[in-house]
Amino acid sequence: MLLSEQKTHLVLLFVRLKIFIFCVCRLVFCLTFEIEEVSMSGLEMDGSAVGDRSGIAESEVQIASQLRGPNASRSPRTESVVSITECPVCFDVSLPIYQCINGHIICNSCLQGLTEKNCPSCRVSLAKPTRNLALEKVLKSYKVMLPCKYSSNGCTVKRVCEEKEAHQLICPFKTYACPMSNNNNCRWEGRLDEIVDHLKGRRRPSHFVPLLFGETATFYFPAETDAESQLAIQIQTCFGTYFLIALKITAATDPNAGNEYFALVQVIGHSEVASRYAYRMELERDGRRLSWEAVPLEISDNVKHAMDKGDCLCFSSKTMMLFKNREIDLIPLVVTISEV
Ligand SMILES: [Zn+2]
Ligand SMILES: [Zn+2]
Ligand SMILES: [Zn+2]
Ligand SMILES: [Zn+2]
Predict the structure, then answer these.
(1) Which contacts of 43-50 are long-range, i.e. CB under 8 A and separated by 24 or more positions?
(2) Domains with residue ranges and CATH for the chain
(3) Which family does it belong to (predicted)?
(4) Phi, psi of 242 (to 5 degrees)
(5) Beta strands 229-238 and 211-213: pairing type?
(6) What is the Cα–Cα distance from 146 to 135, expressed in whole angstroms?
(7) Worst-scoring range by mean pLDDT, 71-75, 166-170, 256-260?
(8) Per-residue b/e over 254-271, b at no fewer than 16 CB within 10 Å?
(9) CB under 8 Å to 69, separation ≥6 — which residues?
C-alpha cells in the first residue's frame, strides 16, 4: 500500500516536471521570435522603428503586419528583396524596372544598351517592354535600402531608390572611362582622383599629356591630322582644380571645305565644381581675335555630344590658317579660367 502511494506520488511529480519544462521552452521560443521580428522590421523599414511607417498605405501596413504575424512564415529580409529586384545583366537595382512577357526583369540602362531587343534571360522580344510596377512599389513603399552601384569598387553607401541615383553621380568610387578613349581605344577606367595621374604619366599606362599651371595658359595644338577625327587633350590647373582642354579636328566630307575644329574645357569634377568656374578660349594673331566663353563641362558630360552640338569654340580650316603659328605649324590656344 505504502509502495503504491509512493509510485503515484512519483508519477505526479514527473508529470508536473514535464509541464514546467514545456512552459519554459514555450516562453523562450516566444521571446526569441519577438526579438527576431523587431530586428527584421528594422532592416526592412530603412532602419526606422516598427511603428514609424508614415507614407505607407493602411492596407500595405496590414499586409506587412500579417506577414509578420505569429502564424505567417518569415518576411523576406532586405537582402532577399534586393536580390529579387536586381537586374540579371548588371546586378544593380534601379528604377524603372522593365520585364519581358515571361516576367524576367531588366533595368532601364541595360534595356537601352541591348543591341538586339531580346530578353537576356529567355530571348523573347523586348521591343515593347512593360514596367513591373509591383516590384517598383515594393522598393518605394517599404523604403528598401539599396547598395550603391559601385559597391563592388568599395562603396558601402546604401540609399532608398529615390536617392540612390543622386549619390551615384558623385560617388567617390564611381569609375570613368579615359577621356582619350574615343581617340586611341584606351581601355583604362579609374576613379575621379586617378584621371590626372593616368593622363600625365604618374601612373602607367599613360598618355603623357602636358600639364600647365595658372589661370591663363597658352596651349599649342596640332594644326593638321591624318586621321578622320582626332581629339587632343592637355591639362590646366588653377584654384586647386584640374581642367581638361580638349581640341578635336574632324576631316570634312567635302575635300574643298577643309577640316573643322572644336575646342572646349571640361573640369575634372562634378557639376557643383563646374558651376564655380567660367572659361574663355581665344585665338589671336595680327590684330584678329576669335573668342568663346562658357561654363566648363563637368566630368560626366559627353565631350563628343557637346562638340557635335556646336556648344564650344568652332572654326574652319580657313579660319585656322589666319591664327596658326606658321613657324611651328601649331595652333596657339589661349585659355583663361576664372571663378564666378
Ligand atoms: Zn542592368
Ligand atoms: Zn524573358
Ligand atoms: Zn557609392
Ligand atoms: Zn587612357
Answers:
(1) 43/77, 43/78, 44/75, 44/76, 44/77, 44/78, 44/81, 44/142, 44/144, 45/142, 45/143, 46/143, 46/144, 46/145, 46/160, 47/145, 48/143
(2) 78-170 (3.30.40.10), 176-339 (2.60.210.10)
(3) Belongs to the SINA (Seven in absentia) family.
(4) -100, 140
(5) parallel
(6) 13
(7) 71-75
(8) eeeebbbbbbbbbbbbee
(9) none
Residue-level pLDDT at 134: 93
Surrounding ion ligand 3 within 5 Å at CB are 148, 150, 155, 157, 171
The model's confidence at residue 6, banded by pLDDT at 50, 70 and 90, is low
Measure 87 CA to ligand 3 centroid, in angstroms: 18
Q: What H or E segment, with its residue span, contains residue 245?
A: strand 241-250
- Span from the CA of 45 to the centroid of ligand 3 (angstroms): 21
Rounded distance from Cα 308 to ligand 1 centre (Å): 28
Q: Are strands 313-316 and 260-267 parallel, antiparallel or unpaired?
A: antiparallel
Distance 111 CA to ligand 1 centre (A): 7
**Sequence-distant (≥ 6) Cβ neighbours of residue 220 within 8 angstroms:** 325, 328, 330, 331, 332, 333
CA distance 82 to 67: 18
Cα(333)–Cα(324) distance, integer angstroms: 10
Backbone angles phi, psi at 95, to 5 degrees: -100, 150
Find how far residue 206's CA is from the centre of its chain.
Answer: 25
